[in-house]
Amino acid sequence: MHTLSRIGRIVALVVILAALLGGCAPKPAAPTPAPAATSPTEAPPATPTTAPTVESPTVASPAAPTDEQQTLTIGLGRNLYDGPATWYFLHGSLGVWEPLIILDNDMMAQPVLATSWEMEPDGKVWTITLRQGVTFHDGTPFDAEAVLLNIPKLQEEYMTSLPHLATLEKVDDHTVRFVMDEPTPNLPQLIAYFSSAMLAPSAVGDDGRPTAPIGTGPFVFVDYIKDDAIILERNENYWGERPHLSQVTFKYIPDANTRLAALQSGQIDAIADVGALQPEQAPVIQQDPNLVLLEQGVATTHYLTFNSGKPPFDDMRLRQALNMAIDRQALVDSTLYGYGQPGMSVLTPHAVQWLHPDVAPRYDAATAQQLAQDALDGQRVEAKMLISSALIGRWPYENIAQIVQAIAIPLGIDITIEVVEAGAWNTALRDGEYNLTMMPYTLMTGDPDFFMRRWVWSQGDMNQRRSYGYANPRADELAVAAVSETDLATRKAMYDELQEIVAEEVPFTPLYHEVTIYATRNDVHDLLLDVQFKPSLERAYRGQ
Fold first, then answer.
1. Which ranges in the chain are annotated with CATH 3.10.105.10?
2. 516-528 in b/e burial notation, b at 16+ Cβ within 10 A?
3. Separation of alpha carbons 227 and 253, rounded Å
4. Can you give 84-120 as a three-state secondary structure string?
5. Alpha-carbon dihedral angle through residues 508, 509, 512, 514, given to the nearest 10 degrees
6. For the domain 298-515, what is the CATH code?
7. How, if at all, do strands 114-119 and 413-420 pair?
8. Are 217 and 114 in contact (CB under 8 A)?
9. Environment class of 358 (CB within 10 Å of its CB; exposed 0-12, middle 13-18, buried 19+)
10. Percent of the chain with pLDDT over 70
11. Residues near 176 by Cβ (< 8 Å), separated by ≥ 6?
12. N or C terminus of the chain with fewer C-beta within 10 Å?
C-alpha cells in the first residue's frame, strides 16, 4: 500500500489548470476509419442515439492467407484464466466456449449456438432453437442437454441473472423452453455472452465443477502457464468458418510499459483488450512504422463510487458537490488524450435503446462550492480513496484520483489516496473501510437490469459487496419491477426514472465511457475488437 501525499495534490492542480487554460494534450490524429466487426447475423437498425461513433482504423489487407501454420501472440494487462473458480473457466475473449446469444455493436441480441427464439404473449415462456451439427472439442454433440446443464450452473455465478426462472425444459434435442415465474421480455439479453457460456457435460467433475474448458468455439484450450500465458490451437472441426490462425497465445504482462516494449520489439504481435494500452502510449504507436493503432468504443464505463453509509458521504450534498466539481470534458482531454467520452449516464451510451442523456452530470463549480458550504458550514472533513493496483496498470486511475483529490480541497474535503493490491481492495470495500473509490463496469448483457439490480437495488450484489450503503425505496421498487415489464415504453420510462434518481442522489457517478485503444504489428490483419472488447480471432490472419 502507498499513500499519495500533498505533492500529488499539487501535481493534480497543475494538470487541471493546464486543462482549463487550453493546454490539454490533443488527441493524436486518427488513421482512416475501417469497417466495424460484424456479428453472427445482420443486426436490426439501431435506435437513434447520442452515443459516439467510434470505429477502428484500417490498413489495406492482403489476400486471405493459405499458410496453415500462422501464429499470433496477444499481450494483455490481465489474466483471462479463472479455472474452476468460475463456471465458464476462461474469459469469452479467448473464443474457446461460445454462448447461445451474443450482442452486436449496437448491443442487440444475435444468435450463436441458438439460431432463433420466440416469446409467448404472456412473456413468461421462451422457446429457443439450437444450432444443429455442432460438437464440443471432445467430439460430443452440443444439444439441449448441454443447455440444461450450463444455464442452471451459470445462475450461481456472478455474471448472470434470471431472477424469475421457474423451469428449464428440453422440448427435443435442439429445442429448449425457458418457463418464467414473471414476464421476462428481455430474456435474450439476460442470457447473452457469459450468461449462456456452453461447456461440454464431459468437462464437469464429480464435485459438479468444471475440470477443463471444453467448448465449441473456433479455438481449443491447450495449456495454461500460471500467471504467464494461455495457449490455444485452432479447432479443426469448427462448425463455422475455419480460422486462419493455427495457434494463439495470450500473454499476461501486467506492466503497461513492458507490454508496449514487447510489441515494439516483436515479442508479441498485438495488444488487444480493454485497458491494455494507456492513452499516453498512442503517439508512440502512431510514430512507429511497424505498428498500427486502432480504437473501439466499448460498453465499459468508469465510475467514481461513494460509501454512502458512513461520513462524510452519507451527506448527499457532499456527493453532489464533488460530482458537480468534476469537469469531465477536461478530464478526458487532459488525462485520456481524448480517448474517451465524458460520463453521461450510469448506463453505457452504446446501450442505445436505454440511454437517458438528459441526466448527464453537470459541471458547475459555483453550485458545488455552495453545496459543500451548506453541508460543512466552514468545517473540513477527511476521506479515504482506495484504488486497486490491478486497475492502475490498465487505466490512468492514479492521475484521475489526484485530480479528484485536488478538486475536493476547495470544497473542504481532504482526500487521502491509498493504492492497495486487488485482494485488499476487494476486502476493504466489502467491509466498508473506505469513503470513495473508482472502478470500471461493463454492461455485458446490454440490458439496464444488469446494472440496476446489481448497483442501485439496496439488496443488489454490487451494492452489498462494495458497501455502497445506498437505499432508496422508489429505486428499489423500480429496479425489481422493471425486469418484468412487458410494455417497452413503460419499461423505458422506469429505467429513465432510475437514471434520474441516481443522477440526483449520486451514490456513484460516471466519470467517462471507455474508448479502447489497441494495436498490432503491421503484418496482423482483421484483428478487431467489438463493443464487448472481444477480439475477432476467427477472422484474423498474418500477411505482409
1. 298-515
2. bbbbbbeebbbbb
3. 9
4. HHCCCCECHHHCCCEECEEECCCCCEEECCEEEEEEC
5. 40
6. 3.10.105.10
7. unpaired
8. no
9. exposed
10. 87
11. 127, 128, 130, 144, 147, 148, 168, 169, 170
12. C
Distance, CA of 319 to CA of 372 (rounded, Å): 9
pLDDT at 63: 58
Query: CATH second-level architecture of 97-203?
Result: Alpha-Beta Complex (3.90)
From residue 115, alpha-carbon distances to 110, 126, 142, 291, 454 in Å are 9, 13, 13, 38, 29
pLDDT for residue 98 is more than 60: yes
Paired sense of beta strands 114-119 and 125-130, if any: antiparallel
C-alpha cell of residue 13: 492542480
Give the count of beta carbons closer than 10 Å to the beta carbon of residue 248. 26
CA–CA distance, 92 with 321 (Å, rounded to integer): 39
Whole-number Å distance between alpha carbons of 448 and 40: 23
| 51 sits in which H/E element | none
Q: What CATH topology corresponds to 70-79+214-296+518-542?
A: D-Maltodextrin-Binding Protein; domain 2 (3.40.190)
What is the spatial distance between Cα 452 and Cα 347, in angstroms, rounded to a whole number?
9
- What stretch(es) of the chain map to CATH 3.90.76.10? 97-203
Euclidean distance between CA atoms 498 and 448, whole angstroms: 10
Note the pLDDT tens digit of each residue in 499-523: 999 999 999 999 999 999 999 999 9
HSE-up of residue 324 (Cα within 13 Å, Cβ side) = 19
Whole-prediction pTM: 0.83
Distances (CA, A) of 5 to 43, 325, 396, 414: 51, 21, 17, 11
